[in-house]
Amino acid sequence: MPDFIAEWLNQNDIFTAMTIMEYWDGMVTTVHLVFLSLVIGLLVAVPLAILRTVRNPFVSGPVWLYTYLFRGTPLLIQLYIIYYGLAQIEGIQETFWWDIFREPFYPALLAFTLNTAAYTTEIIRGAIVSTPHGEIEAAKAYGMNWFMRMRRIVLPSAARRAVQAYSNEVIFMLHASAIASVVTIVDLTGAARNIYSRFYAPFDAFIFVALCYMALTFILVFAFRKLETHLLRHQRPVSG
Amino acid sequence: MKKMIFAASCALALIAGGAQAQEQNLRIAFDVPYEPFEYKDENGELTGFEVELAEAMCEEMSANCEFVIQAWDGMIPGLLARKFDLIMSSMSITPERAERVLFSEPYYNTPGGWFGPVSFETDVTDMAAMDGMTVGVQRGTTMDTYVTENMGGIVTIKRYTTADDMVLDLEGQRLDVVFVDYPVGEQTVLTKEGFKEVGEQVKLGDGVGVAMRKRDADLAEEVNAALSTLKEDGTYDTIMQKYFAYDIKM
C-alpha cells in the first residue's frame, strides 16, 4: 500500500482497514447478488418474451400477467412479501425450503430475479415485435422454419435493438439492490449503514458508498459499450 | 408617517417578543413504535412513557411543544439540520454521540435483555456454547455495540432498523436469540406465545438523556431544571408507574 494512503488511513477514525474490509465484503455481496439475479433473469426472460409474442392469449396472457404484477409493484414490497411473508407460512420451518429461505440471500435473489426478468421480458418483447417484416418474409422465402427463423433472424436482430435498453435495466438493478440491506443483508449499502450508525458520520459513510456504486456503474457502462460496438459492427462505415 | 408607525410597531413587537421569550416553541422528535416509550395507541394518538414525560416537561418549562416522528437512522442528522430541537427517543448517552450532540442529565436507564424461544437452553455468556448462533440487535444501539465488541466473530450478528422486523425474524426462526432494550423485549417478545427471557439482564451505558444541539446550552439548563423538578415532585414516578412494574428512574 502506498505510504500516503497508509498515512491517511491512520489519520482518520472512520476509514480504518476494518471498515474498508466491511465495504469490500459489502461490494462482494452486492456484485454476487446482482450478477446472479441478472444472469438468471435474462435466461428466464428470453423464452418468456417469445411466449409473450405468441398470438394465443392462453400462452401470452399468463406472461403478460406476470410482467404486469412485477412491474406494477415496488421491488421493496416484493422483497418484504418474499422475505417476511414466506417465514409466516405454517410449518415452512420444517420443510427443506427453509434451508433456502432462512438466510436473507435467497429471498433477495428470488425477488431481484423475478423483478429483473419481468422488465427484461418486456424489453426483449419490444425488440422482437419491431423486427422488420421484410426480414421475416425473406427468411420464410428461404424456407426457414419457425425455430430457425427465431435463432438466425429474429433473436439476433432483436438483441441489437434491445442492448441499449437492457444496459439501463442492468444499471437500475445494481442501484435497486441497495434495498437488500433492509432484510439484514450486509451489501454495500448495509455496510454503509452499519458504519454510519457506529460513527454518526452520514457524509463519510454514504459518499464513500456512492463512489463505490459509481465505480461499479462505470465498469458496466464500459462493458456495454464494448458489447454494442461488437453487436453493431456491421453498421460502421467500412473505411472507418 | 406611515414608515414611522411601521417602525414603532416593529419596535413594540420586539419588546413584546422579548417579554414573551419564556413561551418558546420546541419540536421534540420520537421514533415510533418503541413500546412502551413512544408508540401510537388504538386511536393513532402518540403516547408512551417518554411522550408523557415530554408533555410534563413542556408544561414545567411553559413551552409550546410540537411532537415530530423521525426514524432512528435520521435522528441526529435531523437534530443538527434543525428539523427539531430535542430528541426524547430513548437515546442512550455515549461518548460518540456526545461528540455530536449535547445531552441533558440522564432521565432513565434500562438494561439490555436476552430473549429467545422457550426451547432455548444455552447460557448466553458461554461463548463456546454461543458459537455459530445468530443474534438479532437494533442497528446502532448500545446493545449492538455490546454484542459487536464482546461476541463479534463468535456469533452471526443481524442488525435491524426496527424492533418489529427483528421480532418477526425471531418468530420466523431466522434468529436464535435477540438482545434488546429490556422493556421493548418485554412488550414485543414476551407478549407472544412460546418466548421467554433467556439470560441475565446487562446494564449498559450511562442512561438515556434528552439530546440537543451543542449550541443550545441554555435550553439544556432549562431541560435539566424541569426534569429534576419532575423527578422530585412525584410527577415522574406517577408516569413511570403507569408503564413499568420496575424502577427505571435515574
Explained architecture:
The complex is a heterodimer of chains A (240) and B (250). With 240 residues, chain A is mainly alpha-helical. Chain A has a single domain, classed as MetI-like (MetI-like fold, Orthogonal Bundle). Helices cover 78% and strands 0% of the residues of chain A. Chain A is flat, with a radius of gyration of 22 Å. The two termini of chain A are 43 Å apart. The mean pLDDT of chain A is 91. By secondary structure, chain B is of the alpha/beta class. Chain B has two domains: 125 residues, D-Maltodextrin-Binding Protein, domain 2 (3-Layer(aba) Sandwich), CATH 3.40.190; 86 residues, Periplasmic binding protein-like II (D-Maltodextrin-Binding Protein, domain 2, 3-Layer(aba) Sandwich), CATH 3.40.190. In chain B, 38% of the residues lie in helices and 18% in strands. Chain B contains ten helices and twelve strands. In chain B, strands 4-1-5-12-6 form a five-stranded mixed beta sheet. A five-stranded mixed beta sheet of chain B has the order 9-8-10-7-11, sandwiched between helices. In chain B, strands 2-3 form a two-stranded antiparallel sheet. In chain B, strand 8, helix 6 and strand 9 form a beta-alpha-beta unit. The radius of gyration of chain B is 21 Å and the shape is globular. About 3% of the residues of chain B have low confidence. The interface between A and B is medium-sized, with 18 and 22 residues.
